[in-house]
Amino acid sequence: MCSKIKIAFIPMIFLLVLNGCSFSKKVSDPEEVLYATDWILYNMKGSNISMDAFAEGAPRLKFDPNGNIMIFTGCNTINGKFSISGSYLNLDFASDSEMCPGVMQNDFINSLKDSKRYVMMKERLMLMDGSSVLMAFFPK
Question: Which portions of the chain are predicted below pLDDT 50?
Fold first, then answer.
């Protein structure tokens, strides 16, 4: 009886292992990871941000494979373009004259304008001006 139970469970275990392997596929290309989610700001210029500093929620970015970027500043949404060459990032957007109240939103926009590179590290997106991290984002 015991050997019949073992024989019945072996195919089940094989199917579970096989099925588990199909779900473990991870996105490893940095560009694919960049497009896969919205990126929520959590650190700017070395300091963790306070959600209280933003009127309508944390700033976020959304990149798409066609070179479009959606930027939510914490009170406004800006659409623009971006391009990538290796780890170099070029952002092209116009921030309208209607800036958000408070300093943090303006710092966010200025840091985006200063961003020249991006690095994916431990499921985090880091925007840099060269060698210094200007902003860090986690996936939504």
Answer: 5-26
